[in-house]
Amino acid sequence: MVRPLAPHLNISLPRGRLSARAAVGILVSTLVAFSACAGGADASNRWVGDHGRPVARSSPPRGPLAVTDDGLPPSGQLPPHPPGSSSVSAPPDAPSSPGAAGADLLSRIPTFPPAPPAEKITLPVGPAAAWLTHIPTSQKVAFLTIDDGWVKQPEAIQLVQAAHVPVTLFLTIDAIRNNPGYFKRLEAGGAVIEAHTLTHPELKGKPLAFQQHEICGSADQLGALYGRRPVLFRPPFGDKDLTTLLVTHQCGMKAAFFWKETVDKGVVHFQEGHTVQPGDIILMHFRPAFAADFLAALQAIHDAGLTPALLENYIP
Ligand SMILES: [Zn+2]
């Protein structure tokens, strides 16, 4: 059995004329921002892979600047605007900065044939939400999912709008609360918003009430913010237990998802093989390299002869 692949987390100090103090501040902010990403921040020996070859990752240094093991910063250290976020200068519904996504970026968006009419899968009957790493289909489709929401770049909106491809966003309430309007614009561009907890904790092993608060609470808040209550869920770090799936079902959501490929810094990491397969679910994040990641994901789908399709259309 192939060990699930988690995305890389590579953090380096900025070079140049930055003072040591500024550099440390940026490092801390970076740690905080990336600590929230699925699989990208687990501090303790999470396996990451390079094309299926697992590598043990060691823990980051502990101390007053370290993030906690559950991937969250200690209380009070959450920055309102993670590094790379252009929401610092962009009001929630301000137009995108002119030229934020250059013509060169937009010209690299692959073109796809239309997605075929979706053939819905069958979900198991029972008290637990389905757990899916891919959609079991032979249709020539793949599914692009984008997690968290800490980094909010105008060019991401432009790229999603220009690509005309469906994407599913698994949003964390703490990551989006400073600018929910940003994701409304993505929604207008074809994205569908689903749940990814309130605070991005590790859920596996946590008590029922804790998981209910995180899972149901996030679906409730997203429903209130966007007018559509999520029907799908992704647990932070892709980690879950039976309680997670029972609670997901209790909270009115049908399925929870892992992934087959991850994208980071413009590189697609395959859990199995070297090609996107029909039905694969691809994971990326709202990160500073959004444009490179988005284009790499679409190119991989294109190279496999597949078309992006909407995950929700395959769930009954
Ligand atoms: Zn996440």
TrEMBL record:
Residues 84-103 have a biased composition (Low complexity). Residues 43-111 are annotated as: Disordered. InterPro entries: Glyco_hydro/deAcase_b/a-brl, NODB_dom, Polysacc_deacetylase_ArnD. Residues 140-309 form the NodB homology domain. This is Polysaccharide deacetylase family protein. It comes from Planosporangium thailandense.
